[in-house]
Specification:
heterodimer; A: mainly beta; 6-stranded mixed sheet; 5-stranded antiparallel sheet; 0% helix; B: mainly beta; 7-stranded mixed sheet; 4-stranded antiparallel sheet; 55% strand
Amino acid sequence: KQEVTQIPAALSVPEGENLVLNCSFTDSAIYNLQWFRQDPGKGLTSLLLIQSSQREQTSGRLNASLDKSSGRSTLYIAASQPGDSATYLCAVRGSSGNTPLVFGKGTRLSVIA
Amino acid sequence: DVKVTQSSRYLVKRTGEKVFLECVQDMDHENMFWYRQDPGLGLRLIYFSYDVKMKEKGDIPEGYSVSREKKERFSLILESASTNQTSMYLCASSGQVIKYFGPGTRLTVL
């Protein structure tokens, strides 16, 4: 059974720092991996999607990488801002058809001005 | 823009009541999902559906049922609400690639 782990569970950084959030998964036979952002009391917003054949995806100050063989992904946030404060969730989809996403428990990020 | 909407943002019900949570998506997606989110437990899949009238149990289906009579609508039903079903409920839909989430319904069962 696929398990997704995110480390650390919580992180506080001063504004302007670059930071890395980690995600690991136990079954490397994935279809894709997706990073989400969740603000308190709200739903999930998709940030980046990496297909199993890709190594990384970039969007603005965000860069997500995927190392399928080692079962790891990282989300890199450059020049962090207070508006980046949120919970970041990593999720993987299995390799066969319509399998649902398996989520990690998230990393709660606080960027302090 | 993909839209996934949920019928209520906040809901308060009493123990034993029947509760309906509605989810509608406007992108003609085949797949729809219901999750619950609790502190320290992350998102847990309750049920999902990959076609009209099709449903599959997720990780925690006990105490819940679902209905998908139309492609755009996926309903989560609590036949007899209990206090341990107090939670944030998130609906999602997807084609083959990206999954989109609704804003969530925070349900409190008293």
